[in-house]
Amino acid sequence: MLAESQGWIMPLLFLGCLLWALSPMLPLHEPHQRWQRWALHAVPPLLLFALLIDRVHALLTHDVNHPEVATLLTSVDAWPVRLQVLFTGQGAVEGAMLSFMAFSVLSPRLPSLRGAVPTTRSAIQRRMVAHAGAWCAVLMTTLLPESAYESLTLLPPQPTQTVGAWSVLFAVVLATLVLIMAGELVSATGLMATTREPRLLLQRAVMKMAVALPLLWWCWAIHVDVEAWWARPNADSKATLGLLIALFGTAVTTVHVPAQLVEGRSHTNQHPTRTTVAVAFTALLMMPLFGGWMSDAFGYVASADALWIALRLTAVLLLVAGAFMLLPLLGMDGAHRPELWWFRVVIGAGVPVGLVFTSDAALLVQGALLTGTLSLMWPWILEHQHRPQRYAAAASLSVVLVGWALMWLPWPLTVTVQAVVAGTVAWSVVASVPGAWSGR
Questions:
Q1: pLDDT tens column, 31-44
Q2: Which of 212, 214, 310, 428 has its CA at a distance of 20 to 30 angstroms from the CA of residue 253?
Q3: Does the CA dihedral 393-397-398-403 come out positive or negative?
Q4: Is 409 exposed, middle or buried (0-12, 13-18, 19+ CB in 10 A)?
Q5: Distance, CA of 179 to CA of 101 (rounded, Å)
Q6: How far is CA 152 from CA 1, 67, 155, 238, in A?
């Protein structure tokens, strides 16, 4: 195998992903540095393409020492079965990562940016590349284990695993599309405070996400046995990553983007410090509280156990969010309210990424979505002196009561309905602000 004979490939690929994630901070943005940028952008996709070609060759030539050939195929399997293994096994993951990277590098050529100036297209590309690099580093650590790239020494007499169904490919495609569109949304919102040119990119990404996200949640719900997954979450890393991606896409679409569209337009009497404190207090209260209430769904003996675990995880998450809120001091302040921008990014990505390290992070899922919904409503309550406070308070209380009522539904249906509620409230807030969607 290529990764086994050339041991430097996987470390270099991981290093390339990390450099992509840090690329906005690298001094490679001058016009005369295009060859350095080309090398930075080309190396990880080329390495992935080489690994994919090596996998195709092993499957089509029936290399019996290859892990997928030895555990999934017999010597009499025809090429359609081998192609099915390629498109539903590790080849699907490698192809998805390659597509994700290629789309990020070629993002300046998107039709949505056709009318943008070169500076805007370059800024979108930097953010898309950084987003893809961070996610590909996570995917490498979870879905590309070292054992998948080592030749087998003891060959099983018969296949020990079943070939994945074609529906696996459909789920992988959906997850890749959600990641790509989430990157478009995060990149566009990072520039909305200084230019309106990415607005068309953002609007089209939101409309595509409205189709892809429900389908991804549906695929996850019908393919994953929640009780079996929760008993051994590390045994099915693909299901964990699917949940991670669905949660991240939901948080970006129902919290981060609506907040960015509303900020700067609806707040006539701004009290950003008061709003920031209220949002942080809401996260500290709601995430552990709903984590304790959801203990039955995850098999805890007592709700107090789940409450304390959720409280510790919330404390760690808020500590990281507080550190990221200092980044505007370093110049990363391209938003109407940069501190809240970074806080939302950490809350939206922190819970999904936490699932990579511990399955207990699932306790924070519903609380994080509810916190995001309330974070949209706090400015609506605190920064509009002319609005009757009793109506705003009643709306917020209604959101909390709906979230509490949803806990009686089986998980993950609880999270799915909570995402629908969050999206409905968020885009209702956007619709109530003149010009927030159209930009006029």
A1: 777 788 888 899 99
A2: 310
A3: positive
A4: middle
A5: 11
A6: 10, 6, 6, 22
Percentage of the residues of the chain whose pLDDT score is greater than 90? 15
How far is 304 from 310, CA to CA, in rounded Å? 10
Give just the sign of the alpha carbon dihedral 14, 16, 22, 24: negative
3-state secondary structure of 423: helix
Listed in sequence order, the residues at least 6 apart from 161 whose beta carbon sits closer than 8 Å to its beta carbon are 71, 72
The interaxial angle of helices 272-293 and 338-357, nearest 10 deg, is 20
Residue-wise pLDDT tens digits, 62-110: 777 777 777 877 776 777 888 888 888 888 899 999 999 999 999 999 8
* pTM as predicted: 0.84
SS3 content of the chain, % helix, strand, coil (to 5): 75, 0, 25
Q: How far apart are CA 126 and CA 93, in angstroms?
A: 23
d(CA 158, CA 150): 19
Whole-angstrom distance, CA of residue 247 vs CA of residue 371:
14
**Residue ranges in 31-89 assigned as alpha helix (H):** 34-61, 67-72, 79-88
Average pLDDT over residues 40-56: 91
On whether the CB atoms of residues 59 and 82 are closer than 8 A, the answer is yes
Identity of residue 159? P
Tokens of 250: 């939901």
Q: What is the DSSP string of 103-163?
A: HHHTGGG-GGGTTS-HHHHHHHHHHHHHHHHHHHHHHHHHHS-GGGGS--SS--SS--SPP
Q: Which residues contact 175 (CB under 8 A, 6 or more apart)?
A: 96, 216, 241, 242, 245, 246
Q: What is the distance between the alpha carbons of residues 272 and 341, in angstroms, rounded to a whole number? A: 12
Can you spell out the DSSP letters for 213-258?
Answer: HHHHHHHHHHH--HHHHHHSGGG-HHHHHHHHHHHHHHHIIIIIHH
In the numeric block, the tokens 């789309």 are attached to: 103
